[in-house]
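Task card 7
Instruction: Convert sequence to structure tokens.
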Amino acid sequence: MLVKNALYQAGPLPTTTCNGLPAEPMTPAEARTYINEALLCLENTWGQHLKKAGLPYEPVKVQYVTRLPKNYCGSEDGETIQPSELWYCDWDRTLSFKIGKYWLLGLPNLDLFNTTAVTYGYHVQKQAGLYDAAEDLRAGSKAEHLEQRRRKYQQIECLGAAFMKSVWPLPGKTARDWERVESSFYSDTAKYGKAANIKRWVKAGFRTADPAACNTWAAPSSRVS
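Output:
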């Protein structure tokens, strides 16, 4: 299921456009409009691909929150310290957006759009059976458990980049804007992996627009460390 999956067999994502994306938001209301438009693009692209692969397709649910309820989706605490955050809950297949100042700067960058595309990758994994298969894995050690988490996380970074390529170029964006996204990984962590490895998966996704390039589960441990 993880190494061989229909998601990898359907070819590159369909080439589409996202011309309805508004300017970067300055207010929470504008941010919701921006996110909703980005999600329309994501649903259009991934819906086509999942159906082509013979996989189930179900639109993601969306909610906008000021904070998450305590114990939401198995979390220990609903209170967080980040002003802008996004969560995916596999229990009810919902994206929860906490819109803070970081997403309301009005800067000509791709952060909010890319963050939405990457986190939507969890929903893609869920539809393809990859999410549940990864959760069902048993680990013989903490190190093995962390590696499994990295494989799942680095895959969504790659899937997000594959989507970005499928709708590229975006109105008003340049190659330099995407280079800023690729260069935004600079910290090595046991939870998410080495920055160099994450960049490698992101570049593979953007170069090909093909989920087959995002098969982290078939990669050697050194590629997801």
